Model the fold of this input.
Amino acid sequence: MIIKPNDEGSSRGIHQDSLVFDMNTLIQKVEEELKTYNPPIILNKFIEGREFSVGIIGNDNNTMALPIQEVDLSQLPENLSKFYSFEVKAYYKDKVLYHIPASLTQEEKNLIESTTIKAYKTLSLKDYARVDIILKDNVPYILEINSLPGLMKGKSSLCRMAEATELGYEDLILEIVDIAIKRYNKLGKLL
Done:
C-alpha cells in the first residue's frame, strides 16, 4: 500500500517509507501521518507500471488532452522504490526523465486520453487540470487528478506538455484564460 495525505501537493507526505508491505507497518505509518497531516489519510494499492501525466484543457465538448508525458524513474538508484516520492522530487530530480510525447501505441494513447477526459468530465472539472495515471497490462489506473496544477514556466509538467506543441507556454496561459472567459460568459447567459 501507498499511504498519503489527502490534501497536500508536490508529493509532500509521500515518502519512500510510505510504501508499506505489512499490517504493523501500515498501522504505524498511518498513526505517524495523522500526527502530521489533516485527516483523512489515503491508502492506495501500489501498482507497478508505467507512469504518465496528462494535461487536460477545455470544457464540455471542447475538452482535449495535451501530449502525454511519461515519468521515467528507471535511472533512480537501486535503493529507492520506483515511485514519485518526495525524496525523488527533492533530491533525485536529475535522475527523473520526462518523455513528451510518451512512447505509446495508438491504442494506449487513445485509452489514456479517453480515460483522463472521462475522469475530468465526471468530476465536473473546469478549464484545465492534470491527471496522473499508471498503465499496467493495458489498464489505466488514475493515481490522482490535480484540479489546479502549477503553471510555472519551465518547471510544471503542464507547461512542458504545452511546450511540446505549437501551443507553447504563453499560448497555454492565454488558452486557459480564454476557456475560462467563455465558460463564465456562458454561465452568465444561463443566469
In short: The chain has five helices and eight strands.
